[in-house]
Amino acid sequence: MRLFQSTVITFVSNVVRLFIGMAAGVFIARALGPVGRGEYNLALLVGTFLVFMMDLGFSSAVSYFVSSGKFSSDQMLKNSFWASWILGVAGLLLFLLMEHVGMAEVLLGKFAMTPSVMTVLIFLPAAFFQLYFNVLLLGEGRMLVYNLVPIVAQFAVVTTIGIQYFRSSLTVNWVVFLYLMGNVVSIFVMLLFRRNFFSALMTPFFTWKEIKTILKFSVPAHLGAVIQFLNFRLDSFIVNFYLGVGAVGIYTLSGSFAELLWMISRPIGTILMPKVAASGSATTLGDVVFRSSSLAFFATLVVSIALAVVAPWAIPLVYGAKFQGSVTPLLLLLPGATIFCYTNVQACYLTGIGKPQINTAVSGISLIATVGLDLWLIPRIGVNGAAIASTVSYTLSSVLTVYQASKLSKVPLYAAFRLPRKEEFRLVLDGLSFLTGLVRR
Length: 441
What we know:
Helix content is about 85%, strand content about 0%. By secondary structure, the protein is an all-alpha fold.
């Protein structure tokens, strides 16, 4: 399947999952309110944090080494299965250590050892294996299965959440459990497309030499990913520390809407990264990267303006009046989220030319700005301060990334802000034409 067609299918899959996720979000917000939604988000954030910390970049290594043919799919599947159990238990022990020294209480307050958090910890091995199994499909180029599995699992979870909502029996613990069961459903669906799973478990374990080869690839990239994750999510813990879990529910709703804008730029970056890497030069596709950045920015800007117009009345109407407080943080986040599309595209370019350390440095600088502004602004102006801090950080990240990309590609800075040309619009029309063909089939 051609790269462009695969990307279109992935984009459509993301849109479908977006609407399914929004339906779940409405059920959860209306049933739990800001406090319950905040507790739910903090519990899941614990799991996401532990997966990010313990992964060591192995998820990216699975896809890379399988797609490059350096390891067989069966061998990677077996080692991923056992790595999931090891890392899951290690994540559990790490959290218990954090709880013992008081760090968990600082981040989560009285919600540090709730049943919902304990459920997340128990499901950690499934979360790891679902992640590795999914990226294995990506590495094999099985794009239809890769995109179908999350939709099936998410639809099953949302259907169950909807049933519980209308039965008036939806609680925080139930929602967390059902969300995590989505990982289990994904695994079972993927196993339907991998009938040789048990025979794959008979393949050899990695040798120590092979493990070192994998870690040499994965660990440097992992550092940048962890820093970027903290840049995106640490503010939720800081909001909880100063303002309480109800404010987390308000703020994370606005953040989830702002991040919808990245559905445009992230697929573009995904397309460009392997092309840049294959070109073997920092300058060959430099103009293409900057033109793509420009297209992503202006498309994102249109969506951002539309969201700013609709959100003030749509959020309280759909999610309930209790979430009226999410509107202002969202409006403050939109400028930064829009500008951050440059980072989403050009950071992939920097990785493609073998300069991931630049992304790590930019992420580190942005994280310092985020935390500093959070600690200053959140106690003074609440969740609006967190939104302002994120917008400043996103803008700083994009400025630094575009500057470095311009320097290495030798493309002038202003090229990132040019209006899209006819060729870019033709690419969009080709994508729409391809989608129409899929629907007619």
